[in-house]
Amino acid sequence: MTSPEPSSQASKTNMTQQQQRTWVLRVVFVVCLLFSAAFCGVVSYWVVDDLEQSVGMQTYESVASSALQNAKAITLRKVQGGEVMASVMKYAFPDSSQWPMVSLDGYVEIASKIAKLSSSLTLAVNVFVQPAQVDAFHEHAKQVYEEQGYPEGAGVSDFGFGTWKPDQSEEPAYPDRRLPDVTGETTYDSPNNILIPIFLHNNVNATSLLLNVHSRVFQGVATDSMLECAQQHDATNTNKEEPVCTMVTDFLELIIRPGPAAIIYNPVFAKNDPNTMVAITGTTIHWEEVLTSVVPDYVDGLDCVVSTDTESYTFVIDNGQPRLVGKGDHHDPQYEHMGRSEVLNDFGTEASASKTFTLTVYPTNAMLDEFRTNSPTAIAMGFVGVILFCAALFFSYDFFMRGESRHQKAVLEIKRRFVRFVSHEIRTPLNTVCMGLELLRSELDAQMDATEEEREKPPDNLKEVTSAAVNDGGSSSLRDTLKYMMDLTGDILDNSESAVAILNDLLNYDKIETGSFQLEVGIVPIWELVRKSVSAFDIQARKRNVALNFTLEQHEVIQNNDNNSAPGNGENNDVEKAKTPDLNMLNVIGDDMRLRQVILNLVSNALKFVEENNGVIDVKASFVAGGLPGDRPLYTSKDGGGQQAEPISYPREGAVKVSVRDNGEGMTAEQLHLLFREGVQFDANKLQAGGGSGLGLYITKGLIEQHGGVIRVESPGRGHGTTFTVFLPLYHCQSPTEPDRSSSTADTNGSIAPGVKDANDSADKKASSSPPRDSLRKESRYILVVDDAAMNRKMLIRLLQRAGHTCDSAANGQEAVDAVLADQERIKADEGHTPFDTILMDFEMPVLNGPDATKVIRSHGCDAFIVGVTGNVLLEDVNYFKSKGADHVLAKPLKVTELNEAWVKFKR
């Protein structure tokens, strides 16, 4: 058998996890420092930066509001300028018959002043000319231009003086080539055959004089919409009110200035005929011109988007001056939520083709950056610098302390290696010793039974009587020898189990110290558990002639008068309930095996310290109505194998009080103060013959506290005995198993009866032969024993066979894998073949160890009940074995009774 290496897989995994946790904690600490620095820096930066942004936002809101209002005011002034000129022409020529042969003296001067007041670039009058009036209109226009001082080239094109239209075969936007237009025909589907030339203009040098705007599609559609508006109004107007047919074109480009623009057309109605539109006034809106004066000169970085329902243009304000970015909406998307909009021409109109222009402004980084400084960054870096300095101090401290930490880890690792080494190296030979003793006792018991049967067999004749008489003397001598050997092996086995108990104490101490002690929580029938635990010492007490008494009290009220009394609820401690509770419905939520260990430790200690032939031990269990008030979170786990614990809740109802009083050596006040510390033994050589580990009460206290209970100890002094008292919370819940009524608590005032033997005990003793493998009894099992020690395999197989089971063996993990695969092949070949029911797997083996073999076996689909049998019983070793597929892990030395309990527990 190979002994476990200190750097075994489980140990290395545990060490790696500890190192990872240490580094994680170190990193978390540093991260917390950095996070604190970052948090303080970010908060300070955010506060100062938010203040600066607030100033920037307030400035932007002010600038945006001013820009929108100014742009709207300019647009409305342009509309009003056209309305004023329309009114002047209407009243100057009130008779519709005068049109289009009209002429307003001083028009250029009047229009220029109106255009200036309305912030307009141009202000023109377009008259309606029927095709039949074209020649007369030409003569009239020529005369007007001469009289009002227009240049000689006014209204003159390549073909001569007269109305014209652009060549539609080329680019539609004012091509160089002009064609005469005297018919009013259009290239688009217009319902009106009319000419609308630009007749009067505030700019005498305008090259657009006598342009027939009706010939151009976008202007012709606009004028047709105005005529349609007038016609519809004429059909419904009974009060002779003047219709509102003002028209705003979509985006276009002017001849005199590039860039997006529009034209506002205001209708001119004859004064004496309000339904007859005789002319229109045209006022240009150049959007760069509009945006030039909307913000102060210091404003830099403001996106202005002018849009209709069809298209849009984007301008950016640089130092108060607009600059065209291009067609479309090009504002920064990150400031979408900060856009502010205003409708520029929100007046009512009945012309359906009129467009509505909207101005939307957005801030830019350039604009908001004007209000940002380096103060937020400087303040944030200051905070970060301070915390980084603290972090540097921590790293310096950590560097000097790491050596000490490594030393402590090395000591801890050596300690754990020692515990693992001792556990394995002592449990392994003890396993052989204990199993050999158990097997020997079983054989001796069988021989005694056989001798007894031969002795009681009646003789058939005198010869047999004589022979029986002779044999009777020999049989008596043999039985005495067998009895002596039985007692001897029992004493050896008891001492072996004492060594195992000390090992268990060491392991439990290690678990408690490392915080890895786990409970398998469930409903514990505490009253029956205490009775059975005490009864286990009945034979030992009788051998020493010690009176061991057990008493169950149905109800006890605790007077909470001093600090040494058990805790009560402070209200009903002195009031006894009128009705005695049903103790079968009051149970403890906890680990039954650990609670049994608590009772065994207390009674065992009492037996150690009382005198033979004169000792008295009184064990009393009672219900305390007001004990241990308050609830705590409870969880239950069926097997404790790492499954997620499920919360359970039962109503609290008092506590159970278990007291163990002896008339032994007793203790002083100083000893009472030190009692529950680890490794404490008082007069160990004198009172215990040097036995014990000194950890029993320390472990007992830890177990009780994990169950939410308390333990107290009292002693009047040396020579007056000691009383240990345990309080555990009770819950009103049904026990999963019915109590044993035949030997329960009926006798509550006398010495307890010896423990009732399990029926399986006698069966184990008498089972000496194994049934055929393929015809196993229902209670039999087919077991594969895997251990590299031949003696261990031999004795364990013999014990299992005597218990009625069939066994196969394997000397290492690889042989176990081969045996399972061969067994699976036999199952395929023979449907009646019985597969392995249980596999008892050793941990440390050559070729292939137990956990790895278990993993391979599980990978081949084997669902046998795999039990790890090992001397490596530290928590990480057990968990490692289970992580590879083991259902359960038992510690060496293995007992058949423990294996039976595992089968029952896991329902296999």
From TrEMBL:
TM region(s), chain numbering: 23-48, 378-400
Biased composition, class Polar residues, residue ranges: 558-572, 735-751
InterPro entries, alphabetized: CheY-like_superfamily, HATPase_C_sf, HATPase_dom, His_kinase_dom, HisK_dim/P_dom, HisK_dim/P_sf, Sig_transdc_His_kin-like_C, Sig_transdc_resp-reg_receiver
Location of region: Disordered: 448-474, 558-577, 735-775
All residue ranges annotated as the Histidine kinase domain in the record: 421-732
Single GO cellular component term: plasma membrane
Top-level enzyme category: transferase
Listed Basic and acidic residues bias regions: 454-463, 758-767
An MF annotation (GO) of this entry: phosphorelay sensor kinase activity
Keywords: Kinase, Membrane, Phosphoprotein, Transferase, Transmembrane, Transmembrane helix
Positions of modified residues (4-aspartylphosphate): D842
EC number assigned by the record: 2.7.13.3
Reactions catalysed: ATP + protein L-histidine = ADP + protein N-phospho-L-histidine
Recorded superkingdom: Eukaryota
Domain named Response regulatory: residues: 782-907
PROSITE patterns for the chain: HIS_KIN, RESPONSE_REGULATORY
Protein's recorded name: histidine kinase
Native source species: Seminavis robusta
